[in-house]
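ARCHIVE RECORD
Type: protein–small molecule complex
Small molecule: S-adenosylmethionine
Source of inputs: curated submission
Record status: active
Notes field left blank by submitter.
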Amino acid sequence: MRRLTKVRPYRERVAIMKGQMDGHYQNSMASLQRQGGDTAKRARLRENARSAGKVFLVGAGPGNPDLLTLRALRVLLEADVIVYDRLASAEIVALGRAEAERVYAGKERDHHCMPQSDISRLLVALARQNKKVVRLKGGDPFIFGRGGEEAQVLAEHGIDFEIVPGVTAACGVAAFAGIPLTHRDYAHSCVFVAGHLKDGSMNLDWQALCRPNQTLVVYMGLLGLPVLCRELAAHGMPTSTPAAMVQQGSTPGQRVVVGTIACLPQRVAVAGLVPPALTIVGEVVRLREQLAWFDGHETDVTLYASL
Ligand SMILES: C[S@@+](CC[C@H](N)C(=O)[O-])C[C@H]1O[C@@H](n2cnc3c(N)ncnc32)[C@H](O)[C@@H]1O
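STRUCTURE (tokenized, with ligand):
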């Protein structure tokens, strides 16, 4: 016979979880004391750690506030300063405290608002003023986000930092476009590449990108789309391979153009897609016809905004 489990009200479940967490905390403290006592020095160190500045390199996801992680929301709500990129959506930046200082460090193609070296220097300076700094980036900070470089500068200057991962565009945008990046019948691997042009060409390992049963996801590839499709075909990818470009995925501005590597550049040009846009190439694109689900609705953030 199936046992029926009593579903407890939400508040009760939270209280139980908190009790369990407190239990873990008390156990840890007891073990700490067993290991030599909670000395004044240790308390002072803890106090320093609490008051010293710290930088959180936070991934904001592809733009939809519902795709923020709980950790990202928590640090946003505690930040003294939010240094944000163009790709971090306004709704997300607005979730920080009203008193938090907001600094726009956004980058647009060829219009860098603040050079990368200045952004890193700013983060160091703010942390040295004992501020809790959220460096808010689109997607995930460690995927085409220069989070690695910023973390290196912080480490070199002895600044305390934390990396808060985010939903990278490949995952978030593909999900909202109804395109599974892998599927047992179509793709067993998935490759992420940056598709920006350098001197009108794209320096990629074309042989590796043309492997069958693989999905290719191209970041920053709007301008270079004709070059991408031409090179893929020249390196042996069948011109009938399905491909899609998704503009502003996961947000009300989402638009999806589908075709093949032969016709996608032309279709995208006619549709007039604008950045940010992501290209997905591979047989999995066919599944969108069956799996498209997102109707571009607005996300209601009143719940988060009231926290
Ligand atoms: C500098 S990269 C940053 C990537 C980011 N760190 C991530 O993990 O998603 C910017 C590129 O990400 C892609 N991108 C980010 N958000 C997107 C969105 N909502 N819709 C489509 N593409 C997006 C675009 O290809 C854009 O040019």
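CURATOR ANNOTATION: The chain has two domains: 52-167, 170-291.
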